């Protein structure tokens, strides 16, 4: 994708992440006891949330992006504004030309900028303590038409943290995404874990997804989120999911296949399930529907979006052939990495996958770049400073990058290098 005016718009949840350096703290969260003292080596203020984690990662990979952020007129808001400005205007040595990215700032008087304390002890998954702040006031009509000019890909993140988005059960979000697809814009959606003790934990998320996914081209939630949203009773009964999937916990491909098939049946064209340190599982439906090639046939039954919209889809999307993309089932484990922190790893994985799409790559290559970018992310404490350029990612892959062994229990799968092809794969 050429670096020009912004082609990718990011909207949804934002946060100022405050990350104490726990890299020298051993013992995981067991060291945090009432009345105790834990010394840290410093603290880092970084950008956070789906918009900034995925958006800035894609920017660092060389794509031109537009970030829609909403902040309060407060000290945290000023810090976040400067961090975003600095991130967009920094130039890496490998970039001959800096991507032309920009930011749209919606500042609200009298409101608190969202912030998140991120606790990420060594060799332990992270924990968040978050203040929703301005995210609680975010509305879909904040995304004005002028922000969409020239946009080819729209990524929306974390509905469970956006009160005005989930309160109507997904009807407004579905309506907006349907409108974007009619304009020829490719749509991408990311989720997060709802607050199990709060209002978002009481939402019927299966119903929410059934309304929204017919208008989502790329959907990449985590396995924990899917278990809660599609199998809430199983999630609540199996305590390992309450604090995230523990390292080494076996996943069964039958569970992944059933949940991914549900997502495809609901209407999304590409369903990716992020598995933490266990890798990435991808299932696709009809990414290129047979009726898409003809404007005259009216409406695509899979999404309710007229085929005329397909002719307005960007060339990189139209180049994703049915032969390579339709009805795929693939799994890839993570690459080996020196883990400094896992904050934003999933968001960076999505950025790697979307970057592959923008470059017109096959699904196997998109998945390889997804876990590669995710691995680069965890080598730094924050979400994006470890992300190299697209060329550097490719260089690291070409030199031979060792993968971790597959941690998903696979049955009747075929392996080719680090990629694994499932029994439902139609290639």
Polypeptide structure, described:
With 427 residues, this protein is an alpha/beta fold. The chain has 13 helices and 17 strands. It has helices spanning 49-60, 75-89, 163-166, 171-182, 205-212, 223-230, 232-237, 253-266, 315-318, 322-325, 345-358, 363-378, 390-398; strands at residues 8-12, 15-20, 43-48, 65-72, 102-108, 115-119, 127-131, 153-157, 186-190, 218-219, 251-252, 270-274, 280-284, 329-332, 408-409, 414-416, 419-421. An eleven-stranded mixed beta sheet has the order 5-4-1-8-9-10-12-13-14-17-16, sandwiched between helices. Strands 3-2-6-7 form a four-stranded mixed beta sheet. Helix 1 crosses helix 11 (345-358) and helix 11 packs antiparallel against helix 12 (363-378). The longest helix is centred in the C-terminal third of the chain and has 16 residues, at 363-378. The chain is globular. The model is unreliable at 294-299 (pLDDT under 50).
């Amino acid at each position: 994708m050429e670096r020009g005016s912004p082609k990718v718009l990011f909207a949804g949840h934002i946060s100022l992440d405050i990350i104490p350096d726990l890299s020298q703290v051993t013992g995981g969260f067991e060291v945090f006891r009432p009345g105790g003292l834990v010394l840290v080596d410093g603290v880092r203020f970084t950008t956070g949330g789906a918009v900034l984690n995925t958006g800035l990662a894609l920017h660092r990979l060389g794509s031109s992006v537009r970030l829609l952020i909403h902040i309060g007129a407060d000290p945290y808001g000023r810090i976040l504004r400067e961090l975003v400005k600095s991130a967009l205007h920094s130039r890496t040595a490998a970039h001959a030309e800096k991507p032309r990215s920009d930011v749209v700032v919606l500042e609200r008087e009298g409101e608190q900028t969202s912030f998140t304390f991120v606790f990420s002890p060594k060799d332990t998954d992270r924990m968040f303590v978050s203040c929703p702040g301005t995210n609680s006031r975010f509305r879909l009509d904040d995304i004005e038409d002028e922000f969409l000019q020239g946009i080819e890909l729209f990524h929306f993140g974390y509905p469970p943290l956006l009160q005005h988005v989930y309160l109507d059960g997904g009807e407004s979000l579905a309506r907006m995404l349907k409108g974007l697809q009619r304009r020829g814009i490719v749509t991408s959606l990311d989720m997060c874990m709802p607050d199990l003790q709060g209002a978002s934990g009481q939402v019927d998320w299966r119903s929410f997804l059934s309304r929204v996914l017919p208008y989502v081209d790329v959907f990449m939630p985590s396995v924990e989120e899917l278990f809660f949203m599609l199998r809430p009773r199983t999630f609540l009964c199996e305590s390992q999911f309450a604090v995230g999937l523990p390292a080494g916990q076996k996943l069964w491909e039958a569970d992944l296949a059933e949940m991914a098939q549900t997502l495809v049946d609901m209407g999304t064209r590409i369903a990716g399930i992020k598995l933490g340190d266990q890798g990435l599982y991808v299932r696709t439906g009809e990414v290129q529907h047979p009726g898409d090639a003809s404007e005259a046939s009216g409406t695509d039954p899979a999404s309710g979006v007229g085929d005329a919209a397909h002719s307005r889809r960007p060339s990189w999307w139209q180049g994703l052939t049915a032969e390579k993309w339709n009805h795929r089932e693939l799994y890839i484990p993570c690459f080996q990495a020196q883990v400094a922190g896992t904050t934003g790893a999933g968001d960076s994985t999505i950025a790697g996958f979307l970057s592959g799409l923008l470059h017109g790559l096959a699904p196997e290559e998109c998945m390889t770049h997804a876990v590669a970018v995710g691995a680069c992310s965890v080598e730094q404490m924050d979400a994006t400073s470890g992300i190299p350029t697209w060329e550097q990612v490719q260089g690291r892959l070409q030199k031979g990058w060792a993968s971790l062994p597959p941690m998903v229990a696979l049955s009747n799968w075929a392996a080719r290098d680090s990629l694994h092809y499932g029994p439902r794969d139609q290639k």
